[in-house]
Amino acid sequence: MTLATGYPAGAQVAQNEDSAMSRMAPRAGAPGSFADLTEQLQPAVVNISTTQRVRVPNNPFAGSPLADLFGNRGDETTREGSSLGSGFLVSADGYIVTNNHVVAPRGNADLTSITVSMVDGTEYEAELVGRDAASDLAVLKIERSEAFPFVKFGDSTTTRVGDWVIAIGNPFGLGSTVTSGIISAVYRNTGSGGAYDRYLQTDAAINRGNSGGPMFDLQGNVIGINNAILSPSGGNVGIGFAIPADIAAPIVERLREGKAIERGYLGVQISPVTDELADSLGIRAGRGEFVQAVEPGGAAADAGIQAGDVIVKIDGKEVTPEQTLSFIVANIKPGSSIPIELIRRGENEKITATVGKRPTEEQLAAQGFGQEEEDDEDALNRAPQRQGAGLIEDSLGVSVLPMTGQIARQLGLPRDTSGLVISVVDPRSNAGQIGLRRRDVILAADQRKVNTVEELEAIIEEFKDGNRSSILLEVQRPGQRPRFVPVKLR
């Protein structure tokens, strides 16, 4: 059978003339049926439901200054909550893999029970063996006298875009459901950050309740664990994500053995090297990641990494959008000494760092490194007036004032803070579009400190003379850490 339909005439002629291209052409047709494969795999896929006890304050004003007027602040009642998801057996003695978010208690809740339902309707009470929030994986255990059907992890590193896959799970609690599709992308970085932002993307229908279920190749191996969807409506739109087996398998094995999951950690807040940022730094875009801030006392600080550096290689591995700094470091054993290559103010440098131990997700959230909330309260008594035409306003779209002790006090900053305070932002400018606003403080431009209007003007003139279209500003917003932002010149 020849698949001529859909090929442009020229491409078809080339295919006929080039034996190499003929060998590359897809084999005729899709699998005739997934029925035999499904019949073998479905018994190992389970439905998972949890019962949670949710603590709810009796006092509607609990936590507010009015609480004591309306009863005891500590009074609570409880109600039951639940969650639904999928999982799969990976051993005959009853070990089950699922997503952590399927079994993790939510908010003020305590997990009271986990029930596993087989495809034939048989139910088992499950024990939570271990869970890992960073990778969103969990391992459960069920018991019975006879062996359970189970499936095995495959090699996701050989997965290619266009490969057929099938997903089995329990969307919307309907019971065992099978969908099919292809691999749409491998090691997709979704931009969500974290240590494991690398997924297999598929167009096989994934919906709520599929979380934790397996994604199989046509040999019946688990190459991914269905984890998330991208959807404006909450339903399937053909963009689903699965945790690759090569990432999941070793973590699952450690959870089964009751071992702690230890990951490397540098202690940096990073951002991608966008076209604008690359232009402002005078480097190539898409290579490395930009250091916005360095955690005091962390591994990066001890190694001499500075805010404004671009880290391009770690332990011999290139830092790319597909292989992020967080992913590389997380998979390095804490205590390891590794080489790091970076760009600092246009110069290549090499340093050595001793990798630290990554805090838990709860500790990271509690310390709030790089996650400060914005404070919209305006402490200045009156907005300074627009300065009028000038190089800074014409080029950046902002008006600035030199920092004074009085302004620093009004902004809640240390009295010795230096820099230029933004007094007006033109909303039509790039500065306005990327979110700069009045009360932000420009600390540096092109990684050079600026304390006077003349210093900033001189740097802008340099950039314009060099035909540079973007400039890198270090900006301090009151109540937050300084951050670097590239701003287009106009």
Would you write up a description of this structure?
This protein is elongated. With 490 residues, it is α+β, with helices and mostly antiparallel strands. The relative contact order is 0.08. It has a seven-stranded antiparallel β-sheet with strand order 5-4-1-2-3-7-6. The protein is 19% helix and 33% strand. The chain has four domains: 40-141, Trypsin-like serine proteases (Thrombin, subunit H); 156-256, Thrombin, subunit H, CATH 2.40.10; 264-367, PDZ domain (Pdz3 Domain), CATH 2.30.42; 391-488, Pdz3 Domain (Roll), CATH 2.30.42.10. Strand 2 and strand 3 form a beta hairpin.
State the helix count.
13
Mean pLDDT, nearest integer?
A: 82
- Write out the strand line-up for the largest beta sheet, numbering strands in chain order: 5-4-1-2-3-7-6
- What spatial form do the alpha-carbon principal axes imply? elongated
CATH class of the largest domain: Mainly Beta
CATH architecture of the largest domain: Roll
- Low-pLDDT stretches are 1-25, 369-389
Give me the CATH superfamily of the largest domain.
PDZ domain
Sheet with most strands: 7 strands, antiparallel
Structurally, the number of domains stands at: 4
Rg, Å, rounded: 28 Å
Number of strands: 27
Helix content: 10-25%
CATH level 3 topology of the largest domain: Pdz3 Domain
Distance between the termini: 59 Å
Task: Assign the structural class, choosing from mainly alpha, mainly beta, alpha/beta, alpha+beta, or little secondary structure.
Answer: alpha+beta
Q: β content, as a range?
A: 25-35%
